[in-house]
Design brief:
Layout lengths: L19 H10 L4 H21 L6 H27 L5 H24 L5 H21 L9 H18 L5 H83 L1
Helix pairs in contact: 2-3, 2-4, 3-4, 3-6, 4-5, 4-6, 5-7, 6-7
């Protein structure tokens, strides 16, 4: 868990009584901050959203309106939990893991249910979920070289996906049904474009990391060689000095004998 101010955890800034036990209690309590609670709510909304969307065969406008409300709440909490965590230093290890899982869970559930109901082509669901899962795996691969910051395109993609999926959850007809098709088309294009851009940035980051590692290795090798050369020079110097000293002693001894 990352550091949460003692005041935010209910402390006073002094060591908690009870030594390690007290410190453990404070760290455990810090899990229950507002940002993590919003993330937990979003996770709990996933099964409820699925149940509402598929209720009565999945085609009842009233049930789908309730499903849209649950989806909207989930999207809103996604906006606020990250902002609150960063603003008030409420970032925890749990939040780092649970937040992206909650994001993908609610979006994945919506896409799969909509395709199951026949409202959305399966290839659209495959493209969006494939991109999200692929980028998540790629992030773990390149994290040793650095972190790729969130881009404006990525934020636009998230907004477009949320808007499009929300419109498909509602039982829309007429011009609005046509409009949601184009919104989803924009979301798919942004999904593909931003995914390719992320791959490009990951490749650049990996190459830069490998180049830095090679430079560091070369510098270390050069330093080792220089140290070895210096050590060799010192050894040779000592050998010459010892040889000169022995020659001098022998000369002095010969002179004494004469």
């Amino acid at each position: 868990m990352t550091g949460v101010p003692a005041s935010a955890a209910g402390g006073t800034g002094r060591p908690a009584p009870g030594g390690k036990l007290g410190a453990a209690a404070v760290n455990q309590a810090s899990l229950w901050n507002i940002a993590n609670i919003l993330t937990m709510i979003r996770l709990l909304l996933v099964p409820g959203f699925v149940a509402l969307l598929l209720a009565d065969g999945g085609y009842d406008p009233v049930w789908r309106a309730w499903a849209w409300a649950a989806f909207a709440v989930a999207m809103i909490t996604d906006v606020f939990d990250g902002h609150l965590a960063r603003t008030y230093n409420l970032v925890t290890d749990f939040g780092k893991i649970a937040d992206p899982i909650a994001d993908k869970a609610i979006m994945g559930a919506a896409l799969i249910c909509l395709s199951y109901l026949g409202d959305l082509p399966w290839w659209v669901t495959g493209v969006i979920l494939g991109r999200e899962l692929g980028i998540t795996l790629l992030r773990f691969v390149v994290i040793r070289y650095g972190v790729i910051p969130a881009s404006r395109g990525g934020k636009m993609k998230t907004l477009a996906q949320g808007t499009a999926v929300g419109m498909y959850v509602l039982a829309l007809t007429g011009p609005l049904a046509t409009f949601r098709f184009w919104v989803m088309a924009v979301a798919v294009v942004l999904t593909v474009v931003t995914g390719l851009d992320y791959v490009r940035q990951a490749v650049v980051l990996r190459r830069a990391g490998l180049a830095e590692a090679a430079e560091a290795s070369a510098a270390s090798q050069a330093a080792a060689e220089a140290s070895a050369a210096e050590s060799g020079a010192e050894t040779a110097s000592r050998a010459i000095a010892e040889s000169t000293s022995e020659s001098t002693s022998e000369s002095a001894s010969g002179a004494a004998e004469k």
